[in-house]
């Protein structure tokens, strides 16, 4: 192992949801391309679900992606870690119990994993890359004198709101109010103004979210049918959820066979890149939002929880390249149909597409050789190497 002497080695651990996993995978590949060694650590149950999805739908898993990366010469290792629950435990239905253990018991598992990893190859210069949402990385990094890289996988606006959550609590704006009263929040440093309806939706349990989503899916489904547009609907049943319950209305696929294609998985970027796509009806997860903007596709927004309402605000209010699917708290198929018809009609469609293309241009320029993103990433790599070499943690 002496050949690894002095080589930086990242131990990467993400929150076990796709919206966090995707940025971690991309960062792993990017860091590896700079000559770093990577150990990508998946939750065991996520690996199991993704492997199952791969078997059913033949989509690539992280194992496939990293295998291809190794074949191209990148130094990436892949492994899993248990969260302490059996694989069959329903983490979605028992959301609070699951996260209670992740927050309080999982850190000791990470501690042991990091200890063994360092011991297995002491010649590497180990450092930690963990999700900002986790509370344990700084403690573990300090214990083993590791540099700690904290990766935030959501927009800066959401980070700012989370950072100043004490102000929101003080003013009675967090946890989010369950009624439909909208108030303007204009006291958060760095944020001009934001409505309470656009604040990160955290007082909602995942179990009730799943139940509610099944209630509204029928209205959205038949709203699409009434709108008479052609559509592709990707229904990821049982891929990152422990439930395999069929969520589409009975007989719906037969009703829309001349207008709609319902599939279990797709390469979202490839679909959005197709010039025939006129819009993207999305829950506004940050991955989907960025991918839609990257392809210049305007959005019809229907956020559920977490950062999604804030992401919707950015799309609709700030960048003006999308609309909200529903103005109220309920979903009605007739309203859905009218919104989609209006969105897809000539003048609005052209206007939204123009605004989406403005953002697309900014994103693409940022990733050019002399673009702001590439410059900042190269500076990050330089600073990271300096810190690792100096042996300074955090």
From TrEMBL:
> What family, per the record?
Belongs to the UDP-glycosyltransferase family.
Q: Which UniProt keywords apply?
A: Transferase
Under what name is this protein listed? UDP-glycosyltransferase 86A1-like
What species does this protein belong to?
Sesamum indicum (Oriental sesame)
| A single MF term (Gene Ontology) | quercetin 7-O-glucosyltransferase activity
The answer, when asked if Transmembrane helix is one of the entry's keywords, is: no
Looking up Pfam families in the UniProt record yields:
UDPGT
> Is Transferase found in the keyword set?
yes
**Where does the source fall among the domains of life?**
Eukaryota
Q: Which PANTHER family match?
A: GLUCOSYL/GLUCURONOSYL TRANSFERASES, UDP-GLYCOSYLTRANSFERASE 85A1-RELATED
